[in-house]
Amino acid sequence: MSYMTINNRRVEFTDEKNVLSVIRKSGIDLPTFCYHSELSTYGACRMCVVEDDRGRIFASCSETPRDKMVIYTNTPRLKHHRKMIIELLLASHCRDCTTCTKNGVCVLQKLSRQLGIKEVRFENNKKQLPKDLSSECIIRDPNKCILCGDCVRTCDEIQGMGILDFAFRGSKMQVTTAFNKDLAQTDCVGCGQCRAVCPTGAITIKQDIERVWDALSDSKIRVVVQIAPAVRVAVGDKFGIPKGENVLGRLVAALRRIGFDEVYDTNFGADLTVMEESKELVERLESGDNLPLFTSCCPAWVKFCENRYPQFRKKISTCRSPQEMFGALIKEEARMDEAGDSRKTVVVSIMPCTAKKAEITRPEHFNEGEQNVDYVLTTTEASRMIQESGIDLSQVEPEALDMPFGISSGAGAIFGVTGGVTEAVLRRLMNSDRAEDLEAISFTGVRGVDGIKEASVKLGDRDVKIAVVNGLKCASEVLDKIEAGEIYYDFVEVMACKRGCITGGGQPVPIGPRTKKARVEGLYKIDKLAQIKLSSQNPIVATVYDGILKGKEHKLLHNER
Hints:
By secondary structure, this protein is of the alpha/beta class. It has three domains: 2-74, Roll (Ubiquitin-like (UB roll)); 101-121 and 129-205, Alpha-Beta Plaits (2-Layer Sandwich), CATH 3.30.70; 210-501 and 512-557, Rossmann fold, CATH 3.40.50. The chain has helices at residues 19-25, 76-91, 107-114, 150-158, 193-197, 209-216, 248-258, 266-287, 299-308, 322-336, 356-359, 379-388, 410-413, 420-430, 435-442, 472-484, 513-529, 539-546, 553-557; strands spanning 2-6, 9-13, 49-52, 57-59, 70-72, 138-140, 164-167, 174-177, 203-205, 221-227, 262-265, 293-294, 344-351, 366-367, 370-371, 375-378, 452-459, 462-470, 491-495. A five-stranded mixed beta sheet has the order 2-1-5-3-4, covered by helices on one side. The protein is globular. The chain starts with a strand and ends with a helix.
């Protein structure tokens, strides 16, 4: 067993890839701006520097651990060094902290406090740059950028998009798009992963909070809200609730106190998606046309395919996403209720995803000239509204969802994690809720965190080949191989965010390894405890097909590709 001596204490290590990992293993939270375990080592911020027994100072994130190394993490030289870095960053940083969206969760703010920065001795002579408000999903404020490069590497290494990069040199350096175009003029898909890793307020969510407050305060409007599966295991992070805990009941109660008239579950929309997508897959398998069938639940993936691989567009499922199916259902119900509630119906979605904000404005997601979903609040926005109302989610007594759309299956719940859509569809096609069959499906290879997962499932006398893809860079790899004829699949699930919606661009940050694991386990636990395992077993689904949806399935639940 190899060991290092850290601050005069012996620490054993095995396969840690750098000195920083060993230091954190020992219980020391060494500060960083630019280090993320799933990204390449950049080593630019120099906050993680350490000193060895020979007086050499080096960045611990880029140093391979060696047996019998002796290092110190908090010498006077290092403290002076870190303080100077923070002070210089603050000197060129917009310091409107009290009104910044990231106030309270900003890493620069946190480290300034941690390191005891009491004054900034340098003037800010940096020219103010305009904000980029063009995107429907995120806002870019270059005045708050600290040039850590986290967004650049995420966009390139995880998503393979390369929308953002460094431009210019020296004091004029900035992170921007090619030719300084607005985000809306680029191929940006709005996934928000850049926002998820940004340590400051340089990239934030484009918020709809005020518009939702206006709707809630209007007595002539009936405000209906739906809650996505990944939200219930993440929103508790902002209220001191253990990570990954299912807080759906508490969230329902809080939303009612805020003023929402009806609170439903997007999982019901997911059940409808399973029914329609399973049917579509069977039809395509029988005809042999437009295979593989690509999932359509992730709007960032759909836009990516349209922008970069338009030749595959017709292979994307015609099914609307769960939020759009549910929104269309609610709006249709309101149109049919001529003698009932005369108020205008507004549908709000609480989503883990920033790209959902763009999805609702697409022309195919309108029925009768009306948006199916009017506003999207991310998990972060919803938690902020709860905080604005003075509600402590941890102290709220749980309440049940409204009926009839408060009943859903465990198959709908696992939509929030990568491979969940595939697993739910397989359950429907195999049409068995026996424990051994469900376990067999879960062990086909659709679960896990690998960028590309493959599985083969026997349906009747046919072997159906399946791929589950994490991240748009992996999606590019799969699409290139399909086009070249190197691989063949019948069904492909693509999620733009690694691990699925639980790490969506609208989720509370930071999202570290323990948080990711807890959220994934939280969703699988919901499924495990669910009495209904198959979407087809949801009794309300059958009622809806015989009622509101009768003769309108394609109109309300599908788009033309």
